[in-house]
Design brief:
single chain; alpha+beta; 6-stranded mixed β-sheet; two-stranded antiparallel ribbon; 3 helices; 8 strands; about 25% helix
Length: about 140
């Protein structure tokens, strides 16, 4: 139920020209920023909360998931542009997918965002939270 949803997030963001203009192409990663040459700007995603997933040993027909995106860049304005484009791409986004031979529909809704600065790496970042309702079809 959750392995494919990250791939759908990456696909949607990479297909959004405003996002790739701010973030770069293929610069969305699960959980951490990989080490390497000039990794910024970039965005990470992670599943931070899952509720209503199992009941008495079996999977329910739906669950709520919180998805956190973190946009990293050298300047505050870059993170603003990344976050704005990500929210525009994913807020009220709905996607169908299949995982382990089960069909699902995922519905995204923007919750909130905050920003900060990493002193050690001297990078700005914004955390963006989305609720994602995943329903078995």
């Amino acid at each position: 139920m959750f392995a494919v949803i990250g791939k759908r997030i990456v696909s949607k963001l990479n297909a959004t020209s405003a996002f790739t203009s701010a973030n770069g192409n293929n610069r969305v990663f699960p959980v951490i920023v990989p080490q390497g040459d000039s990794p910024f700007p970039c965005t990470t995603y992670e599943i931070t909360n899952v509720s209503n997933f199992l009941s008495k040993g079996s999977s329910l027909n739906s669950c709520d998931v919180t998805i956190r995106l973190a946009c990293f860049a050298d300047t505050y304005n870059e993170t603003y542009n990344q976050a704005k484009a990500a929210v525009e791409a994913l807020d009220l986004y709905e996607v169908e997918y299949t995982e382990d031979s089960v069909d699902y529909v995922a519905k995204f809704r923007f919750i909130d965002l905050d920003d900060d600065y990493f002193k050690t790496s001297e990078k700005f970042y914004k955390n963006i939270n989305f609720n994602c309702l995943i329903i078995k079809k």
